[in-house]
Input
Amino acid sequence: MTRPISTRIGIVAAVLLLSVSASAQQTKGKPKDESGVRWDEGSIRFGDSVRIDPRVRVQADMLLWTSEEPIEDRFSWGSRRIGVNGELFNRVQFQVERAFQDDDDDDSPWRDVYADVRINRAFQVRGGRFKLPFSLERNTSRDELDFIQRATAVRAISPSRDTGVMVHGRVVKRMVEYEAGVFQHADGFDLTGDPNSWSALGSTLAGRVLVAPIRDKRDGPTRDLHFGVALVRNTMPEGLNSRVGRLFDDDRFSERMNVNGQRTRLGAEGLWRGHRATIKGELLQLTDERLGQAIIGGDLSDLVQRGAYLTGLVRVFGEPGRRGQALDVAVRFDRFTLGSENDTDEAFTNPRADHIAPLAKNTWTFGGNWQVHRWVRVQGNLLRETLVDSLDVRDINTEPRWTAVMRFQFSL
Amino acid sequence: MFRSLLRRLVIGLILQSAAATSLQAQTTDDLFNDSAVQTLEIAIHSRDWDTLRANFTSNDFYPADVTWNGLRVRNVGIRSRGLGSRSGVKPGLEVNFAHYSSRGQFLGMHALVLDNLTTDPSMIRERVAFAFYRRLGIPAPREVHANLYVNGDYAGVYVIVEPVDTVFLQRWLNENSGALYEFHWLTPYFATFLGENLDLYVPLFEPRTQQTRSTFDLFDPIRELFRTINTTSADSFRDAVGARLDLESTLRLIAAEAFMAEWDGILGYAGLNNFYLYRPANAGPARILPWDADHTFQAADYPLLAGAFENVLMRRMLEDPVLRARYFQLVLEAVNSASSGNWLVDEVTRDYQQIRDSVIADPFKPYTNEEFDAAFAELLTFARTRSAFVTSQVQQNR
Output
C-alpha cells in the first residue's frame, strides 16, 4: 500500500528535525554569547539558538484611473497575511504564513508552511508547503516586488505553491545554487495513486539551477549577477485545465483549453545588479499535451504558452536593501503569447482547435517605489496593456488599456 | 492501357469538377428546401456531448464539426438553448459558425437554431406558422425539418431555424445596420410605460446588434416608444406612435397571429412574448418580427380578440377607427390566404406526411407516436374550421 505523499513528507520532516535536535544537543557544551529572551530588531530571540520573527503584511490598493469602464470599486486589499518565520538551533529555518485573502491564485489560505533543515551549505532539505523552484519573480515575495503585480507570463505560467519535499544548496564555492523537489499535486489536481501520473514519487517534479559568478559584493560596478534555468513537469488530467492569461484587473483574456498529458514548464532567468541600477528578465514557456482531445477523438498539437519580461530599475536615493528610506523608479515590458505547435491550418479559438489562433498581450508598466520606513512602502504603477489578435478572429478590444494604481504596504 | 488511364483521368476530373461546382452552388435556399427532410450531422467530442446534455441549462459552447449535404464546417460552436424546451435528453441547440472565429460562416449565415420540438407533439406548428407569415409578406425565419445525427447516432428529428440576425435583416429589409433587440419574457408585460429609468427596459430587450453602444443610445428609443404608446392622446396616437413603430406591419403580424390562435405572441396570455424589435438605422419606425411560434393553433374557436384589450398597444390601436378597420381587413386577408387553394390544410398534411417516418424513428421525443398522430388530427381540424370561425368573429367585432 502506498502512503499519501503528505504522510511521506511528514515522516521525512520529523526525522530531519530529530536529527538536528540531536545535533544541537551535542553542541551544548559550547559557550553562549547571549542568553534569555530578548527583542532584537523585530525578532524574538531565545538565547542565540532560537529566533522567531513575527510577520504581518497588509497591502491596500487604490485604483486611481483606468481607460476602461467607470471605476466602481476604487479600493481593494492587495494582501493581508500574518505568520512567523525563524530559525532553530542554527539548523532549521521555518515559516508559517496565513492569508486572509485569496491574493495569490492559491487554493488554500495557508501560504508558506515549511521547515528547512540545513545539513550543510551544499545540502539542505525543505519539507512542507512552499513555492516551487520556478521563476525569479514568482519566488520573490509580494512585499518585495518591483511592481504591484507580477508580469503576465509569470502569473500565467509559473506554478502555485504546493506540498512537497525539496533538496537545495550551494556548491562550487557558492557559485552554483540548485533546487530539486517533488510535489504532491499537478497544478491543483491530486493524482496520487493515479496510474497515468507521470511520476511515481509525486505528481510534479521541479528543478532549478542558478549560476551566480558575483554575489552580494559591496562595491564595484556589479554587485550581483546570476543566470538560471528551471524545469517543472507533471501530468495533467483530461479537461479544460489549461492555464489562462489575465489582465491587471484579473479578468481573463484567454479561455481555458482542453489538455491531457504532460505539462512542461521551462524557464530561463537573468539578473544584474549594480550600485544603483538593476536589470532582470525571464523567458518562460509552458507546453501542454492534448492527447485524444480532437473533436473526432485524435491527438491535437501541443498548446504552447510563452512569455518574457525585462525590468530596469534605478535607485534614485537611499542605500541598497530595505533598511531605510529609498526611492526606486522602474519600467518593465512583458509579453505573453498563447498558441499551438501547429500554426499552419485555419486557426480557431476553441478549446479543441488544432491550430489555436494566436493571442498575445503586451504590457508596459512604469513604477515608482518609495520605501518610507523599514516597514512601510508606497508604490505607484501606470500600466498599458494591449491585446494582439494577429489573425483578427476574436471579438475583443485591441485598444490599449491604461491603468493607474497605488499601493500602500505595511510589512513587518 | 494508356487510353484507359487517360479516360479514367478525364472522367475523374469531370466528376470532381461537377462535385465542387455542386458544393459551391449550394445556398440557404437549398438548406431550407422543405420538399424533403434534410440530414445534418454533428461530430463532437463524446465528453463534450455528455457534458452538454448533463448541463443542459447552461449556455456554454462546445466545439463541433457540422456536415450537411457534403459540406463540412469545422470548429463551430454549439450550445444548449431554449426556455421551456430545454432538455438533457434531446437538447435544443444553437449552432454558431462564428463563435470560434469571427470569419466563420455557413452558406453566408453566422448561426442556426436546431429546435428540438419538445413542446409541440405535432412537431410542425412553428414551421407551418412561419410559412404562413412569409406567405403574408411578414419577415419570418425559414424552417425545414432535419434528421440529426450526433457522432453517427440518430439524435432525433429537429427543425432547422434560420436565426433573426443581420443576415436575415438584410434579406428581408435590405439593410441591417440598425439596432436589433430580442424580447425576453420575465413577468407579464402588456406594453405599459415602465418609467424613466432605462434599466427597467434593459432586461426585457436584449441588444443583438450594436451591443457596444451606450445604454442611453440603445434604450432611450425603447422607453420613448412605450411612453408614446401610453401617453399620447387619441387624436395624435396614429401619427405619434406611427413615427416610432411601423403600425401597418404590426397590425399585419397581430392579425396573422390572431388567425393562427397564437396564445404566446404579441397578445399572449401572459403579456408580450416571442418577438424581436428592429429599429432601422435611418431612424424610421421600428418593426416587430415574430419568433418561436410553437404555441400557435391553440384551438379553432380561440377568440379573435383574446388578449387584445389587456395589451395597451393593441387596445389603443383598436380605439383608433382607421387602425381598427385596417386590422379587421388584415384578418380577412389572412383568412383568404389560408383558405386560398386549401393552403393551410395542404401545408399541415404535407408537413405531417413528410416527417412521419422520422418522428416514429425518433427515440428521444417526449411524446408517443399516438400523441403525434392525435396532434396532427387536431391541427387538421383547426385548418379546416378556423377560417369560418374567424370570419364570424370579424363580422361580430368590426
About this structure: The helical segments of chain A are 5-26, 152-157. The longest helix of chain A spans residues 5-26.
